[in-house]
Amino acid sequence: MSGNFLHRQPILRRPDGIGGALPALTLIALFFVVPVVALLLRSVTEPVPGLQNYAILFGEGTYARVFFNTFLVATVVTAVTAIVAFPVAWMLAIMPPALGSIVFGIIILSMWTNLLTRTYAWMVLLQRTGVINRTLMDIGLISEPLPLINNLTGVTIGMVYIMLPFMILPLVGTLRAIDPMTLRAAALCGASPFDAFRRILLPLSLPGIAAGGLMVFVMSLGYFVTPTLLGGTSNMMLAAMIAQMIQSLLNWGLGSAAAFILLLVTMALYALQLRLVGAKRMTGGI
């Protein structure tokens, strides 16, 4: 009895209060809060204290065009990605588990390929003498090469390909949670396939579309490599403008202001999604 008491292991208790979260809070402060504060300070202190950097960004037409182009590309890419990803996600949700795992693995494997390599591959495919234009000309669909690069078309194609997995993953989880008997009941009640999709499947899949759409939209806002290589200087986006301001022009004040605006927009969109999802949960909606 006494021997067991002497060799009894001490009971480890989880720290109470803020002590348990202190390491995580320290990392967040060092790698997120401090850089953001430094970014904000530089945006209002360089070259002179004041809000002149923000006035320039919102007042000059050149920068307004970059902002407009950034949100336009992000919106188009998000919409096209959702349209392309939905049938793929539905196929993964209804196909046999063994085959679905193989297709799902192929989709995940594409995310592990180097981003720069995939973008250069699309440059080869989309150029005037590329495979796509040559194939379309050989089969007689076009008489001259289509402009598929250095424009919005090339940026959209390249970014949709890269963003597809980020839209498919949340959609698959949402679609698999839908009871198949719901669609069968709709068919038995006389609903056409389109009506069943429009009035049942699409509304039930909105949480997955919203989650994937927000992820794709936010990532598209700050994308740099693909828009720069496939879009050219005429389709400059905010991330490329920030890099040019800081690396080439050494204008830290203006670049920091643009980066801080991008951060605020991203956080506002995320807060909006949390508010909408929370409101739907409280009202019992889907």
Describe this structure in words.
The protein has one domain: MetI-like (MetI-like fold, Orthogonal Bundle). 76% of the residues lie in helices and 0% in strands. It has helices spanning 2-6, 22-45, 52-59, 61-94, 97-111, 115-126, 131-138, 152-176, 180-188, 193-204, 206-221, 225-231, 238-248, 252-283. Helix 4 (61-94) packs antiparallel against helix 11, helix 11 (206-221) runs antiparallel to helix 14 and helix 13 (238-248) runs antiparallel to helix 14. The protein is globular. The chain starts with a helix and ends with a helix. Residues 281-286 have low confidence and may be disordered.
**Biggest sheet: strands, sense, closure?**
none
Distance from first to last alpha carbon = 59 Å
CATH top-level class: Mainly Alpha
How much of the sequence lies in strands comes to: under 5%
Family: Belongs to the binding-protein-dependent transport system permease family. CysTW subfamily.
InterPro entries: MetI-like, MetI-like_sf
Protein name: Putative spermidine/putrescine transport system permease protein
Keywords: Cell membrane, Membrane, Transmembrane, Transmembrane helix, Transport
